[in-house]
Design a protein that fits this description.
Layout (H helix, E strand, L loop, with lengths): L11 H4 L3 H5 L8 E5 L1 H9 L3 E8 L5 H10 L4 E4 L1 H8 L7 E6 L6 H5 L4 E6 L4 H13 L4 E4 L9 H7 L8 E3 L6 H11 L3 E5 L6 E2 L3 H4 L4 E6 L7 H6 L2 E4 L11 H12 L3
Parallel strand pairs: 2-3, 5-6, 5-10, 6-7, 8-10, 8-11, 9-11
Antiparallel strand pairs: 1-4, 2-4
Helix pairs in contact: 3-4, 7-8, 7-12
Length: 270
């Protein structure tokens, strides 16, 4: 369906509705999200997400794009020249296509952690770029699941999905109920599931990330905090271990996404 009017209401989800509105579009049911690029859309389809519509550049599609479209079934496909798409979305659609997809009901913590030995727990990580990068590292470096506090940026925000390269659809995850405070109820929940907890933080009690006791834990939850401020003091105090990454040249810390990659590589080996 060629776009004749960029102000058509069907296109609001791609250009005029903010992420929070997309998230709450069908309340009390889950809303929608936007997946960008054929690879990411394919991973979402593999994970069972239902497509709503597609927005693509008006040109000859390549084999992969056609394959993805064939999997989407009978849904609206909107097309327009690149100049029109740039006016509509505000950026060049360099990855070929966007797909609006329905969110699914989030699984429970118990469902996500069933059978897991290594999980990542994010406390109030608000930058979607960092959330996406952490998911990509978690999927690549042997994490079995990811838990997020309610204040974290949503993993299905467009930027988080894009940065993760669609790995948000490949690793189990869920968001902790707002009533679950990580420093108390959250820690109790993790311990009840058999996890020991390792907070990534710089304190006088911090041990090196390759500490034998930490490495030997059968089930470990690696806890990472928000950009800048890091983990809450209460969360650090309630953790079984406080872990640091040895550094040089007077550098005391890494960006949370970079720190996650180091932590997952070291602590994910088992």
């Amino acid at each position: 369906m060629k776009i004749a009017d960029i102000k058509a209401p069907e296109l609001d989800i791609y250009a005029r509705l903010p992420e929070v509105q997309l998230l709450r579009l069908y309340e009390p049911k889950p809303g929608i999200f936007i997946a960008e690029s054929p690879i990411v859309i394919e991973r979402a389809l593999d994970a069972g997400y239902e497509p709503v519509s597609v927005l693509a550049e008006e040109r000859q599609m390549n084999e992969m794009e056609l394959s993805v479209l064939a999997r989407c079934g009978d849904i609206p496909v909107y097309t327009a020249p690149m100049e029109v798409l740039k006016e509509l979305t505000g950026f060049a659609l360099i990855r070929g296509m966007l797909c609006a997809m329905k969110r699914k009901q989030l699984p429970s913590v118990a469902q996500v952690c069933e059978g897991a030995k290594r999980i990542a727990v994010l406390e109030d990580v608000v930058n979607p770029t960092n959330v996406g990068a952490i998911f990509r590292s978690a999927a690549a470096l042997h994490m079995d699941a990811v838990l997020l506090t309610g204040a974290c940026s949503n993993p299905l925000y467009r930027r988080a999905i894009r940065v993760s390269m669609g790995t948000v659809f490949q690793i189990p995850w869920t968001i902790l109920d707002d009533k679950i405070r990580l420093a108390d109820t959250g820690m109790t929940l993790l311990h009840e599931m058999g996890f020991r907890t390792a907070a990534m933080a710089l304190t006088d009690q911090s041990v090196s990330i390759d500490d034998p006791s930490v490495m030997a834990e059968e089930k470990l939850a690696i806890i990472l905090g928000t950009e800048g401020a890091g983990l809450q003091k209460e969360t650090i105090a309630a953790s079984d271990y406080t872990v640091r990454i040895p550094m040089s040249h007077g550098v005391d810390s890494l960006n949370v996404a970079a720190a996650s990659a180091v932590a997952f590589w070291q602590l994910g080996r088992r």
